[in-house]
Amino acid sequence: MIHCILHTLGGVFGTPKHGAEEIAVVDAMKSHFFNFMGSLRSYWDFQVGYGLFVTVALFIHSLLFWYLGSLAKTGSPALRPILALFFVNYIGFAILAWKYFFLGPAVTELLIVACLGLAFATAATATA
Prior knowledge:
The chain is mainly α. The chain has one domain (2-122). It is 74% helix and 6% strand. The protein is built from 5 helices and 2 strands. A two-stranded antiparallel sheet has the order 1-2. Strand 1 and strand 2 (39-42) form a beta hairpin. Helix 1 (2-12) runs antiparallel to helix 3 (43-72). The longest helix is centred in the middle third of the chain and has 30 residues, at 43-72. The mean pLDDT is 89.
């Protein structure tokens, strides 16, 4: 949930403060509209829209992880494949964050990877 909140506040609704050149780029993204599949959109619309897609996904992930945490108390071996999928998912996020963004999100993703790895390692295995 922390990741979701910080991404939304800083990444989606944050205001750039890196100087006139960045402000000019953002203004250009906001002012250039084009027809995309029957809808008039700007590059800024896509920027904000994709950011909010990530916000929704992170929010749902946080609720799902909360729920899986409660299931982990029952010792269900069915959790292991789910944990493994999200482990791989967040490794991918960490790589993309490192390559295309900056250290903060990459570290956040790696902390989530560590938690998922620990959960996988301590989850019950299937018994006959």
